[in-house]
Amino acid sequence: ETPEDMLNIADIEEHACRTLSKKAWAYYASASDDMRTKTYNNTIFNLVLFRPRIFRDITVVDTTARMLDFETSLPVFVSPAALARLAHPDGEKAIARACGKQGILQMISNNASLRYPDIVSARVSSEQPFAFQLYVQNERERSEKLLRDVVKAGCRAVVLTLDAPTPGKREMDERLAREEARSTGNIDEGEALSANSGRGKGAEGGVGRAMFQGTAGDLVWDDLIWLKEQLRDDIKIILKGLQTVEDVILAAQQVDKRTGKKLVDAVLLSNHGGRALEGAPPPLLVLEEVRAYAPDVFQSLEIYIDGGIRRGTDVVKALCLGATQVGIGRPALMSLAGGFGEAGVFRVIQILREEIETAMRLLGALTIDQLGPQYVNTRQLDAI
Ligand code: FNR
Fold it and tell me: Which domain of life is it from (predicted)?
Protein backbone atom coordinates (compact mmCIF):
# COMPACT_ATOMS: atom_id res chain seq x y z
CA GLU A 1 0.00 0.00 0.00
CA THR A 2 1.15 3.52 -0.79
CA PRO A 3 0.00 6.91 0.53
CA GLU A 4 -1.76 7.44 -2.81
CA ASP A 5 -4.02 4.47 -2.04
CA MET A 6 -5.44 6.45 0.88
CA LEU A 7 -8.62 8.14 -0.28
CA ASN A 8 -9.44 10.01 2.90
CA ILE A 9 -8.28 10.50 6.48
CA ALA A 10 -10.37 7.59 7.72
CA ASP A 11 -8.27 5.36 5.42
CA ILE A 12 -5.11 6.84 6.96
CA GLU A 13 -6.34 6.10 10.49
CA GLU A 14 -7.33 2.57 9.54
CA HIS A 15 -3.91 2.00 7.95
CA ALA A 16 -2.25 3.32 11.12
CA CYS A 17 -4.34 1.03 13.30
CA ARG A 18 -3.09 -1.96 11.28
CA THR A 19 0.56 -0.98 11.11
CA LEU A 20 1.49 0.92 14.30
CA SER A 21 2.89 -0.85 17.33
CA LYS A 22 0.27 -1.52 20.01
CA LYS A 23 1.91 1.07 22.21
CA ALA A 24 1.94 3.80 19.56
CA TRP A 25 -1.68 3.16 18.63
CA ALA A 26 -2.74 3.25 22.27
CA TYR A 27 -0.88 6.50 22.87
CA TYR A 28 -2.07 8.25 19.69
CA ALA A 29 -5.68 7.06 19.57
CA SER A 30 -6.45 7.29 23.26
CA ALA A 31 -8.52 10.00 24.87
CA SER A 32 -10.02 10.53 28.31
CA ASP A 33 -12.53 8.28 30.05
CA ASP A 34 -15.12 6.99 27.57
CA MET A 35 -13.70 9.14 24.75
CA ARG A 36 -17.01 10.94 24.27
CA THR A 37 -15.41 14.37 23.93
CA LYS A 38 -13.02 13.03 21.30
CA THR A 39 -15.97 11.69 19.28
CA TYR A 40 -18.07 14.80 19.82
CA ASN A 41 -15.26 17.05 18.55
CA ASN A 42 -15.86 15.47 15.16
CA THR A 43 -19.60 14.68 15.12
CA ILE A 44 -20.54 18.27 16.00
CA PHE A 45 -19.62 19.17 12.41
CA ASN A 46 -22.65 17.10 11.34
CA LEU A 47 -24.89 19.70 12.99
CA VAL A 48 -23.65 22.49 10.72
CA LEU A 49 -25.15 22.54 7.23
CA PHE A 50 -23.99 24.55 4.25
CA ARG A 51 -25.96 27.20 2.37
CA PRO A 52 -24.40 26.80 -1.10
CA ARG A 53 -24.84 29.45 -3.80
CA ILE A 54 -25.26 28.75 -7.51
CA PHE A 55 -24.56 30.42 -10.85
CA ARG A 56 -21.06 31.54 -9.94
CA ASP A 57 -17.87 31.15 -11.93
CA ILE A 58 -16.01 28.52 -9.93
CA THR A 59 -13.15 27.81 -12.32
CA VAL A 60 -10.46 29.39 -10.13
CA VAL A 61 -10.33 28.70 -6.41
CA ASP A 62 -7.64 30.12 -4.10
CA THR A 63 -6.99 28.55 -0.69
CA THR A 64 -4.18 30.93 0.31
CA ALA A 65 -4.67 31.94 3.94
CA ARG A 66 -2.99 34.20 6.43
CA MET A 67 -1.73 33.41 9.89
CA LEU A 68 -0.05 35.96 12.18
CA ASP A 69 2.55 37.66 9.96
CA PHE A 70 2.89 35.04 7.25
CA GLU A 71 0.92 33.34 4.49
CA THR A 72 0.06 29.68 4.21
CA SER A 73 -1.14 27.81 1.13
CA LEU A 74 -4.02 26.31 3.09
CA PRO A 75 -5.85 27.42 6.27
CA VAL A 76 -4.58 24.28 8.01
CA PHE A 77 -1.65 23.70 10.39
CA VAL A 78 -0.25 20.68 12.20
CA SER A 79 -1.05 20.87 15.91
CA PRO A 80 1.67 20.01 18.40
CA ALA A 81 1.71 16.34 19.28
CA ALA A 82 4.31 14.40 21.20
CA LEU A 83 6.47 11.46 20.15
CA ALA A 84 6.13 11.22 16.38
CA ARG A 85 8.99 8.72 16.31
CA LEU A 86 6.70 6.09 17.78
CA ALA A 87 5.27 5.97 14.23
CA HIS A 88 8.36 6.48 12.04
CA PRO A 89 12.11 6.96 12.66
CA ASP A 90 12.07 10.37 10.91
CA GLY A 91 9.32 11.49 13.30
CA GLU A 92 8.79 15.25 13.48
CA LYS A 93 11.40 15.84 10.74
CA ALA A 94 9.16 14.01 8.27
CA ILE A 95 6.27 16.25 9.33
CA ALA A 96 8.51 19.31 8.90
CA ARG A 97 9.44 18.39 5.33
CA ALA A 98 5.84 17.63 4.33
CA CYS A 99 4.60 20.91 5.85
CA GLY A 100 7.37 22.81 4.08
CA LYS A 101 6.53 21.30 0.70
CA GLN A 102 2.83 21.98 1.24
CA GLY A 103 3.33 25.50 2.60
CA ILE A 104 1.71 25.15 6.01
CA LEU A 105 2.79 25.70 9.62
CA GLN A 106 3.99 22.95 11.94
CA MET A 107 3.64 23.43 15.68
CA ILE A 108 6.35 21.40 17.40
CA SER A 109 5.54 19.82 20.75
CA ASN A 110 7.51 20.45 23.92
CA ASN A 111 7.51 16.66 24.08
CA ALA A 112 8.61 16.00 20.51
CA SER A 113 10.77 12.92 20.07
CA LEU A 114 13.53 14.97 18.39
CA ARG A 115 15.17 18.18 19.57
CA TYR A 116 13.60 21.38 18.25
CA PRO A 117 16.74 22.60 16.39
CA ASP A 118 17.09 19.21 14.70
CA ILE A 119 13.50 19.27 13.50
CA VAL A 120 13.83 22.83 12.20
CA SER A 121 17.00 21.83 10.34
CA ALA A 122 14.79 19.65 8.10
CA ARG A 123 13.10 22.79 6.74
CA VAL A 124 12.75 22.92 2.95
CA SER A 125 13.36 26.70 2.78
CA SER A 126 14.58 29.41 5.12
CA GLU A 127 11.11 30.97 4.99
CA GLN A 128 9.31 27.88 6.30
CA PRO A 129 7.37 28.80 9.44
CA PHE A 130 7.55 26.87 12.71
CA ALA A 131 5.93 27.36 16.09
CA PHE A 132 7.11 25.84 19.36
CA GLN A 133 4.59 24.52 21.87
CA LEU A 134 5.55 24.94 25.51
CA TYR A 135 4.55 23.15 28.68
CA VAL A 136 5.98 25.31 31.46
CA GLN A 137 8.00 23.16 33.84
CA ASN A 138 8.03 23.34 37.63
CA GLU A 139 11.71 24.05 37.29
CA ARG A 140 11.27 27.26 35.34
CA GLU A 141 14.95 27.35 34.34
CA ARG A 142 14.42 24.21 32.25
CA SER A 143 11.75 26.00 30.21
CA GLU A 144 13.92 29.12 29.96
CA LYS A 145 16.80 27.11 28.55
CA LEU A 146 14.54 25.32 26.11
CA LEU A 147 13.12 28.66 24.91
CA ARG A 148 16.63 30.03 24.38
CA ASP A 149 17.38 27.09 22.07
CA VAL A 150 14.07 27.57 20.28
CA VAL A 151 14.61 31.29 19.69
CA LYS A 152 18.09 30.60 18.41
CA ALA A 153 16.90 27.92 15.98
CA GLY A 154 14.17 30.19 14.61
CA CYS A 155 10.52 30.34 15.55
CA ARG A 156 7.53 32.49 14.50
CA ALA A 157 5.38 31.79 17.54
CA VAL A 158 5.29 30.07 20.90
CA VAL A 159 2.15 28.10 21.67
CA LEU A 160 1.45 27.87 25.39
CA THR A 161 -0.77 24.88 26.14
CA LEU A 162 -3.16 25.43 29.04
CA ASP A 163 -5.85 22.77 28.86
CA ALA A 164 -3.83 19.92 30.30
CA PRO A 165 -2.03 20.99 33.48
CA THR A 166 -2.55 17.35 34.42
CA PRO A 167 -3.29 14.52 31.99
CA GLY A 168 -6.77 13.10 31.55
CA LYS A 169 -7.53 9.48 32.41
CA ARG A 170 -6.50 7.73 29.22
CA GLU A 171 -7.43 4.16 29.83
CA MET A 172 -6.38 2.63 26.51
CA ASP A 173 -2.84 3.87 27.12
CA GLU A 174 -2.89 2.89 30.79
CA ARG A 175 -4.28 -0.58 30.19
CA LEU A 176 -1.54 -1.39 27.69
CA ALA A 177 1.17 -0.14 30.04
CA ARG A 178 -0.18 -2.47 32.74
CA GLU A 179 -0.32 -5.39 30.34
CA GLU A 180 3.28 -4.76 29.29
CA ALA A 181 4.44 -4.39 32.87
CA ARG A 182 2.86 -7.74 33.67
CA SER A 183 4.38 -9.53 30.71
CA THR A 184 7.91 -8.12 30.89
CA GLY A 185 8.11 -7.03 34.50
CA ASN A 186 9.92 -3.99 33.23
CA ILE A 187 8.73 -1.56 30.59
CA ASP A 188 11.10 -0.71 27.77
CA GLU A 189 10.55 3.00 27.30
CA GLY A 190 13.57 3.66 25.11
CA GLU A 191 11.53 4.53 22.05
CA ALA A 192 8.95 6.55 23.95
CA LEU A 193 11.20 9.29 25.19
CA SER A 194 10.91 12.98 24.44
CA ALA A 195 14.15 14.58 23.29
CA ASN A 196 13.24 18.05 24.54
CA SER A 197 11.93 17.26 27.99
CA GLY A 198 13.44 13.82 28.60
CA ARG A 199 10.00 12.67 29.72
CA GLY A 200 8.20 9.45 29.01
CA LYS A 201 10.25 7.04 31.09
CA GLY A 202 8.81 4.86 33.81
CA ALA A 203 5.33 4.93 32.33
CA GLU A 204 3.36 3.03 34.98
CA GLY A 205 0.22 4.96 34.06
CA GLY A 206 0.86 4.90 30.32
CA VAL A 207 3.08 7.02 28.10
CA GLY A 208 0.79 10.05 28.43
CA ARG A 209 0.89 10.16 32.22
CA ALA A 210 4.67 9.85 32.35
CA MET A 211 5.00 12.75 29.94
CA PHE A 212 3.37 15.17 32.36
CA GLN A 213 5.78 14.70 35.26
CA GLY A 214 7.31 18.05 36.09
CA THR A 215 4.69 20.22 34.35
CA ALA A 216 3.87 23.33 36.37
CA GLY A 217 0.44 23.28 37.98
CA ASP A 218 0.54 26.84 39.28
CA LEU A 219 0.45 28.95 36.10
CA VAL A 220 -1.76 32.08 36.12
CA TRP A 221 -2.42 34.92 33.66
CA ASP A 222 0.39 37.02 35.14
CA ASP A 223 2.91 34.40 34.03
CA LEU A 224 2.46 35.64 30.46
CA ILE A 225 4.87 38.47 31.30
CA TRP A 226 7.50 35.88 32.18
CA LEU A 227 6.92 34.18 28.82
CA LYS A 228 7.13 37.47 26.92
CA GLU A 229 10.45 38.23 28.61
CA GLN A 230 11.93 34.99 27.27
CA LEU A 231 11.10 35.84 23.67
CA ARG A 232 12.24 38.24 21.01
CA ASP A 233 9.66 40.90 20.24
CA ASP A 234 8.78 39.51 16.82
CA ILE A 235 7.88 36.07 18.19
CA LYS A 236 4.11 35.79 18.60
CA ILE A 237 2.29 34.22 21.52
CA ILE A 238 -0.55 31.76 20.93
CA LEU A 239 -2.55 30.38 23.88
CA LYS A 240 -3.80 26.85 23.33
CA GLY A 241 -6.65 25.06 25.05
CA LEU A 242 -9.17 27.84 25.69
CA GLN A 243 -12.65 26.43 26.21
CA THR A 244 -14.91 29.37 27.11
CA VAL A 245 -15.66 32.84 25.76
CA GLU A 246 -14.67 34.26 29.16
CA ASP A 247 -11.10 33.04 28.77
CA VAL A 248 -10.92 34.26 25.17
CA ILE A 249 -11.92 37.75 26.38
CA LEU A 250 -9.31 37.58 29.15
CA ALA A 251 -6.68 36.57 26.60
CA ALA A 252 -7.53 39.60 24.47
CA GLN A 253 -7.24 41.87 27.51
CA GLN A 254 -3.73 40.87 28.56
CA VAL A 255 -1.28 43.72 28.10
CA ASP A 256 2.35 44.22 29.00
CA LYS A 257 2.07 47.09 31.48
CA ARG A 258 5.55 48.31 30.67
CA THR A 259 4.93 48.77 26.96
CA GLY A 260 1.14 48.89 26.76
CA LYS A 261 1.30 46.26 24.02
CA LYS A 262 -1.02 43.26 23.99
CA LEU A 263 0.55 39.98 25.04
CA VAL A 264 -1.52 37.44 23.15
CA ASP A 265 -1.65 37.35 19.34
CA ALA A 266 -3.88 34.34 18.80
CA VAL A 267 -5.82 31.68 20.67
CA LEU A 268 -6.24 28.05 19.72
CA LEU A 269 -9.61 26.78 20.96
CA SER A 270 -8.96 23.15 21.85
CA ASN A 271 -9.77 20.43 24.34
CA HIS A 272 -6.57 18.54 23.56
CA GLY A 273 -8.33 16.19 21.16
CA GLY A 274 -10.51 14.90 24.00
CA ARG A 275 -7.45 13.85 25.99
CA ALA A 276 -7.93 16.20 28.95
CA LEU A 277 -11.36 16.91 30.51
CA GLU A 278 -14.06 14.48 29.40
CA GLY A 279 -17.22 16.56 28.89
CA ALA A 280 -15.29 19.62 27.68
CA PRO A 281 -17.04 21.44 24.83
CA PRO A 282 -16.08 20.76 21.23
CA PRO A 283 -14.01 23.73 19.99
CA LEU A 284 -16.57 24.51 17.27
CA LEU A 285 -19.10 25.26 20.00
CA VAL A 286 -16.66 27.56 21.79
CA LEU A 287 -16.11 29.38 18.51
CA GLU A 288 -19.88 29.89 18.30
CA GLU A 289 -19.86 31.21 21.87
CA VAL A 290 -17.26 33.80 20.93
CA ARG A 291 -19.22 34.80 17.82
CA ALA A 292 -22.37 35.24 19.91
CA TYR A 293 -21.01 36.97 23.02
CA ALA A 294 -17.73 38.65 22.05
CA PRO A 295 -17.71 39.25 18.28
CA ASP A 296 -15.27 42.16 18.70
CA VAL A 297 -12.56 39.77 19.86
CA PHE A 298 -12.10 38.59 16.26
CA GLN A 299 -10.63 42.05 15.56
CA SER A 300 -7.92 41.79 18.20
CA LEU A 301 -7.05 38.08 18.17
CA GLU A 302 -6.77 35.42 15.52
CA ILE A 303 -8.84 32.43 16.56
CA TYR A 304 -7.93 28.88 15.57
CA ILE A 305 -9.53 25.58 16.47
CA ASP A 306 -8.40 21.97 16.52
CA GLY A 307 -9.94 18.63 17.41
CA GLY A 308 -11.85 16.21 15.22
CA ILE A 309 -11.02 17.87 11.90
CA ARG A 310 -11.06 14.99 9.41
CA ARG A 311 -12.59 16.45 6.24
CA GLY A 312 -12.15 19.49 4.06
CA THR A 313 -15.78 20.37 4.79
CA ASP A 314 -14.94 20.47 8.53
CA VAL A 315 -12.24 23.03 7.77
CA VAL A 316 -14.55 25.13 5.61
CA LYS A 317 -17.32 25.11 8.25
CA ALA A 318 -14.88 26.29 10.94
CA LEU A 319 -13.67 29.09 8.67
CA CYS A 320 -17.23 30.18 7.90
CA LEU A 321 -17.76 30.53 11.65
CA GLY A 322 -14.75 32.79 12.13
CA ALA A 323 -11.68 30.58 12.55
CA THR A 324 -8.58 31.89 10.76
CA GLN A 325 -6.93 28.47 10.61
CA VAL A 326 -7.60 24.95 11.88
CA GLY A 327 -5.21 22.33 13.27
CA ILE A 328 -4.89 18.60 12.77
CA GLY A 329 -3.39 16.43 15.50
CA ARG A 330 -3.81 12.67 15.12
CA PRO A 331 -4.04 12.64 11.30
CA ALA A 332 -0.46 13.97 11.01
CA LEU A 333 0.95 11.42 13.48
CA MET A 334 -0.99 8.51 12.06
CA SER A 335 -0.04 9.29 8.47
CA LEU A 336 3.60 8.51 9.36
CA ALA A 337 2.74 4.90 10.09
CA GLY A 338 3.52 1.76 8.11
CA GLY A 339 6.67 3.26 6.60
CA PHE A 340 4.84 6.21 4.98
CA GLY A 341 6.82 8.93 6.81
CA GLU A 342 6.99 12.26 4.97
CA ALA A 343 4.92 10.98 2.02
CA GLY A 344 2.09 10.04 4.39
CA VAL A 345 1.94 13.49 5.95
CA PHE A 346 2.14 15.07 2.50
CA ARG A 347 -0.81 12.89 1.42
CA VAL A 348 -2.95 13.94 4.40
CA ILE A 349 -2.46 17.60 3.56
CA GLN A 350 -3.10 16.91 -0.12
CA ILE A 351 -6.36 15.12 0.72
CA LEU A 352 -7.50 18.08 2.79
CA ARG A 353 -6.46 20.50 0.06
CA GLU A 354 -8.52 18.69 -2.57
CA GLU A 355 -11.50 18.37 -0.26
CA ILE A 356 -11.35 22.06 0.71
CA GLU A 357 -11.15 23.14 -2.93
CA THR A 358 -14.10 20.94 -3.87
CA ALA A 359 -16.17 22.22 -0.95
CA MET A 360 -15.39 25.86 -1.81
CA ARG A 361 -16.34 25.34 -5.46
CA LEU A 362 -19.61 23.63 -4.57
CA LEU A 363 -20.32 26.37 -2.04
CA GLY A 364 -19.65 29.14 -4.53
CA ALA A 365 -16.97 30.78 -2.34
CA LEU A 366 -13.67 31.08 -4.18
CA THR A 367 -11.29 32.63 -1.65
CA ILE A 368 -10.74 32.11 2.07
CA ASP A 369 -11.75 35.73 2.75
CA GLN A 370 -15.16 35.09 1.20
CA LEU A 371 -16.01 32.32 3.68
CA GLY A 372 -18.42 33.63 6.28
CA PRO A 373 -21.54 32.81 8.32
CA GLN A 374 -23.78 33.43 5.31
CA TYR A 375 -22.63 30.04 4.00
CA VAL A 376 -23.74 27.94 6.98
CA ASN A 377 -26.90 27.07 8.85
CA THR A 378 -26.07 26.58 12.54
CA ARG A 379 -29.58 26.36 13.97
CA GLN A 380 -28.97 22.86 15.29
CA LEU A 381 -26.09 24.17 17.40
CA ASP A 382 -28.44 26.53 19.24
CA ALA A 383 -30.02 23.58 20.99
CA ILE A 384 -26.74 22.63 22.73
C1 FNR B 1 -1.60 15.69 21.51
N2 FNR B 1 -1.84 17.04 21.79
C3 FNR B 1 -0.83 17.79 22.32
N4 FNR B 1 -1.01 19.11 22.54
C5 FNR B 1 -0.01 19.89 23.00
O6 FNR B 1 -0.19 21.08 23.18
N7 FNR B 1 1.20 19.32 23.30
C8 FNR B 1 1.47 18.01 23.13
O9 FNR B 1 2.56 17.55 23.38
C10 FNR B 1 0.42 17.20 22.64
N11 FNR B 1 0.62 15.86 22.46
C12 FNR B 1 -0.35 15.11 21.85
C13 FNR B 1 -0.10 13.78 21.58
C14 FNR B 1 -1.04 13.03 20.92
C15 FNR B 1 -0.75 11.59 20.61
C16 FNR B 1 -2.29 13.60 20.55
C17 FNR B 1 -3.34 12.80 19.82
C18 FNR B 1 -2.55 14.92 20.84
C19 FNR B 1 -3.10 17.68 21.37
C20 FNR B 1 -3.01 18.17 19.95
O21 FNR B 1 -2.21 19.31 19.86
C22 FNR B 1 -4.38 18.59 19.38
O23 FNR B 1 -4.99 19.52 20.25
C24 FNR B 1 -5.33 17.42 19.17
O25 FNR B 1 -4.65 16.28 18.74
C26 FNR B 1 -6.38 17.81 18.13
O27 FNR B 1 -7.31 16.82 17.95
P28 FNR B 1 -7.26 15.74 16.77
O29 FNR B 1 -6.96 16.46 15.48
O30 FNR B 1 -6.22 14.75 17.15
O31 FNR B 1 -8.63 15.19 16.81
Answer: Eukaryota
Coil, strand or helix at 153: helix
- Give me the catalytic one of 28, 135, 304, 375: 135
Q: Which pairs from 365-371 meet CB under 8 Å and 24+ separation?
A: 365/53, 366/56, 366/58, 366/60, 366/61, 366/62, 367/61, 367/62, 367/64, 368/62, 368/63, 368/64, 368/65, 368/75, 368/319, 371/316, 371/319, 371/320
- Annotated catalytic, 15? no
Q: Which amino acid is at 311?
A: R
**Given this model, what pLDDT does residue 189 score?**
42
The DSSP annotation for 191-204 comes to: TS--TTT----S-T
* 28 CA to centre of ligand 1 in angstroms: 8
Q: Round to whole Å and give the CA distance between 308 and 283.
A: 9
Mutate to test the pocket of ligand 1, among 44, 108, 199, 272 (most ligand atoms within 8 A of CB): 272
Tens-place pLDDT, residues 28-62: 999 999 999 999 999 999 999 999 999 999 999 99
| 154-190 pLDDT, tens digit each | 999 999 999 988 888 888 888 888 888 776 554 444 4
Name the residue at shortest CA distance from atom 15 of ligand 1: 28
Contact 254, 263 (CB under 8 A): yes
**Ligand 1 atom closest to Cα of 30?**
17
Q: Which DSSP helix (H) or strand (E) runs through 284?
A: helix 283-293
